[in-house]
Design goal:
Radius of gyration: 22 Å
CATH class of the largest domain: Alpha Beta
CATH superfamily of the largest domain: Alkaline Phosphatase, subunit A
Number of strands: 17
Largest sheet: 11 strands, mixed
Number of domains: 2
Shape: globular
Strand content: 15-25%
CATH topology of the largest domain: Alkaline Phosphatase, subunit A
CATH architecture of the largest domain: 3-Layer(aba) Sandwich
Structural class: alpha/beta
Length: about 500
């Protein structure tokens, strides 16, 4: 175990060593804000090359901070990615290794996803232990109402948002959760997966039935801002897993208006899942811009309260861009130069944007190619705050990279596994520039391993496994080192 420190002055000494920083830094531990987008692709921010979607506040964040080009999510889908972030374990060892849905979509069937176990180590609990006020505001996905996994039982003093990620398929739900209490909204219930109903798909009024009064993402942004205000006089940790741009395609009309006349598009009629929308390209872009505005609100309140220089703000995405409904990810070049997207262990499914800003501590306008992943956030924040972590976390702190303390060696290996979307068991490993991918491992212990050199083949187009059998052996050894899950369908065939 790492030694635990309770004194804010010692926290700062841990970060800055023996040199004496400005006096105010000796008395105040840094605030931490971690914002997590939902299904945002590597190429969907202006700072990552996007030209069609407006993201001015996130572009400002990148201009004032550090942008990562080789940062990875924990999984190609929602719940396990969140589990790796909060526990510091990759999907070969963490409790949640795929989306595991309980209950249904209707309010009286809300049960959430597989819950974290009682007393689990989490990022929230780790920071509570060193005196932080903690909040989770957004989409949880690690335990439904009344379960052992709810945020208030897993290290968060305050929660507001969706407990069940199925409910988050609708941005106009009947309710959100405030801690353990149902918060009724001014929206009528409708199933978040239905086809167009109306006489004329080109009639804008025919789509009004898929709207409501209270847009959930706006309400959650309100709560995040209020949490900062309420805790401005003490160290705080705000975890904000935003719901955009995960479908359904829903956004207030004032945001949609920003994209009037910009795209050539046809109505989406809900025939491929989720809700219809008369302007699907504009709606998708506007959802990202709306989220960007929420980030701007957080930055503004930090400036207003004089907290910006003592707050580390991080932004990332839980996985790559969606593959369902009528989101034209090719039009937006959502994955940038990467292969694949959500639900795939190729780069497009797991390489994600990552931006970190801490004025005066992180050099503005910088870029790093340091290789890192979600499970590295726990040890990084432990190193920053002097908190304790279990011995079995998989991550490696990237604090030296954040603070510009010289080139940092990459992790020795990165590992992912995924059990959905018809791949019959997918695994991926990165060692240096080598990336191994194996599909079909549920049924075949000898399923072939594809091998790519990301330094020369970022798009993973040239499988060179036959030319490098020694590297393939190393990749397979990492894949075989995973622990057995108690969920049988989350395991792979074993060699006899």
């Amino acid at each position: 175990m790492h030694r635990r420190f309770g004194c804010a002055a010692l926290l700062v000494l841990l970060v800055f060593g023996c040199e004496t920083p400005p006096q105010e830094s000796l008395t105040v531990a840094p605030n931490i804000i971690y914002i997590l987008a939902d299904d945002l692709g590597y190429g969907e921010l202006g700072s990552y090359g996007q030209t069609k979607i407006k993201t001015p506040h996130l572009d400002r964040l990148a201009a004032e901070g550090l942008r990562f080009t080789q940062h990875y999510s924990g999984s190609p889908v929602c719940a396990p990615s969140r589990c790796t972030l909060l526990t510091g374990k990759h999907t070969g060892h963490c409790h949640v290794r795929d989306n595991y849905e309980l209950g249904g979509f209707a309010d009286d069937e809300e049960r959430g996803q597989r819950p974290l176990e009682p007393g689990s180590f989490t990022l929230g609990r780790m920071l509570q232990d060193v005196g932080y006020a903690t909040a989770a505001v957004g989409k949880w996905g690690l335990g439904g109402p009344g379960s052992t996994g709810i945020p208030n039982e897993q290290g968060f003093d305050f929660f507001y948002g969706y407990l069940d990620q199925k409910q988050a398929h609708n941005f106009y739900p009947t309710h959100l959760w405030r801690n353990t209490e149902w918060d009724t909204l001014r929206n009528a219930y409708f199933h978040p997966h239905q086809k167009f109903e109306g006489d004329d798909p080109n009639d804008p009024e025919a789509y009004d039935r898929y709207k409501g009064v209270d847009y959930s993402a706006d309400l959650m942004a309100d709560e995040a801002v209020q949490f900062i205000r309420d805790n401005a006089d003490r160290p705080f940790f705000l975890y904000m897993p935003h719901t955009a741009p995960h479908l359904a395609l829903q956004v207030p009309d004032d945001e949609l208006a920003q994209y009037d006349g910009m795209f050539d598009e046809e109505p989406y009629l809900g025939d491929r899942g989720y809700l219809p929308h008369i302007r699907p390209k504009s709606a998708y872009a506007a959802m990202i811009t709306r989220m960007d505005g929420h980030v701007g609100r957080l930055l503004d309140v930090l400036d207003e309260l004089g907290l910006a220089e003592n707050t580390l703000v991080m932004f990332s995405s839980d996985n790559g861009p969606t593959y369902v409904s009528r989101v034209d990810t090719e039009f937006f070049e959502s994955a940038g130069p990467l292969r694949g997207g959500k639900g795939e262990v190729y780069e497009g499914g797991i390489r994600v944007p990552m931006i970190a800003r801490w004025p005066g501590r992180i050099a503005a306008g910088t870029v790093t190619d340091h290789v890192s992943a979600f499970w590295d956030v726990v040890p990084m924040l432990a190193a920053l705050t002097g908190a304790a972590t279990p011995d079995d976390v998989n991550g490696v702190s990237f604090l030296p990279t954040l603070l510009g303390e010289g080139e940092q060696a990459p992790p020795s290996e990165l590992y992912w596994e995924y059990h959905g979307r018809g791949w019959k068991g997918a695994q991926a490993v990165r060692i240096g520039d080598w990336k191994g991918v194996r599909l079909g491992g549920h049924d075949d212990a000898n399923a072939p391993i594809e091998l790519y050199n990301l330094a020369t083949d970022l798009g993973e187009q040239n499988n060179v496994a036959a030319d490098h059998p020694d590297i393939v052996v190393q990749i397979k050894a990492v894949m075989d080192s995973r622990s057995v899950s108690d969920i049988e369908k989350w395991n792979f065939a074993m060699e006899e």
